[in-house]
């Protein structure tokens, strides 16, 4: 079932990929509130948001499978073969098996979700994803009673993913969500950006997007989804348990041990821009805070 | 030895003798404004503040390493670049200063947070200690100080060893996970400092 959640950001918050106005003029146009079909969208969001364009989204990536530099993924991800591609869905499901991405896509309604994407490194972008709710994919496989967590795994193919030749992380990359987080309507499997197929450096052909968590939770190029009753291991937690927790919810009040999470730098705002305050749950507090009621978020960071 | 049979080392030394020190200052200084221009005009990518911070920091590390090479080059290979050592050291400090300046004025921009970061974040603490150790070296990198301080000058300038090690450590610590590039820098620095010392009767002495 698509369209369970409605965007508060609109296309006006993200620059169309073939926008011919320069960015300064575009921001000016937003501030002036003229044209561009923004009627009904949130004025406050427009005032504070700097739009991100296709080049920014596709040229500033953390995808360590292709190297640790931000420009490594756009440079090296071309080598990745993304077709054919299937996702193995297994564990506590009624219909386990290898699901071809084309078969999945034909079953799903692709919708646009414009989310703020907040990296644990304290920068953020606004990205117009295309995708479907993870809940719909899980419904295809039939989640069994007793399943409590969902584990995810990225492709391991060092001959195409050159970053995997170095032991920066324990490959393959793995991530996990609690089942209620996975079923939340904000949680999507993204298949594209700006209406185009997902670029390889952004996690083609299909990746998770969990907008209220730090970016590394949104695992890319997924090949396996496992329903389980135990909290699954996650790559960054294994690499640095004191720095990266299982939950990794965006939280301005809980600092990373090596840097503050109170503010973030908005990608594309230039050399002389100030940081902007980071919002609790990355601005999705209203939607997701109830998932963590009664939990000490400083302990379960 | 005639001109035609000059070895590579002699050629390098001859060439070095002909290069004025001011030229080294000038050439090494050039990237600073150029990188700033690139950062301001989109040439360093969509996140220019971190990019500029890292460019200056990495150049500072490279210059520190270059400075640490001068003595071993002469000692082990006979290549004499001593006359450039001060220029390289002073420029290394200038890039550390620029790196710090970007962090203070473009990156964090908030004195409360800056102080909190220095106190709370070990990699920043370590970086700042490295910077503080370099300040007296930069201040005394002139002939007047050299004369005034006499033998003390040499002792004082041994501080470049801990400062360089702290700089390498700072780089290793700020990256997520274990990354090869910063480890190469730290390894190089440790090796260059290490070859200056040896063990004698269980004690570390200068080699």
How large, in whole angstroms, is the Cα Rg of chain B?
19 Å
* Largest two-chain interface: A-B, 33 and 28 residues
Question: What is the CATH level 1 assignment of chain A?
Answer: Alpha Beta
Separation, N- and C-terminal Cα atoms of chain A: 31 Å
- Estimated structural class of chain B: mainly alpha
- Rg of chain A, alpha carbons: 19 Å
Work out the helicity level of chain B. over 70%
Instruction: Count the DSSP helices of chain B.
Output: 11
Summarize the structure.
With 301 residues, chain A is an alpha+beta fold. Helix content of chain A is 19%, strand content 21%.
Structure description:
The complex is a heterodimer of chains A (301) and B (207). Chain A has 301 residues and is of the alpha+beta class. Chain A has a single domain, classed as Oxidoreductase, molybdopterin-binding domain (Sulfite Oxidase, Chain A, domain 2). Chain A contains nine helices and twelve strands. The radius of gyration of chain A is 19 Å and the shape is globular. The two termini of chain A are 31 Å apart. Chain B has a two-stranded antiparallel sheet. In chain B, helix 3 (31-40) packs antiparallel against helix 4. Chain B is globular, with a radius of gyration of 19 Å. Chain B starts with 7 loop residues before the first helix and ends with a strand. In chain B, 29% of the residues are buried. Classes of the chains: A alpha+beta (301), B mainly alpha (207).
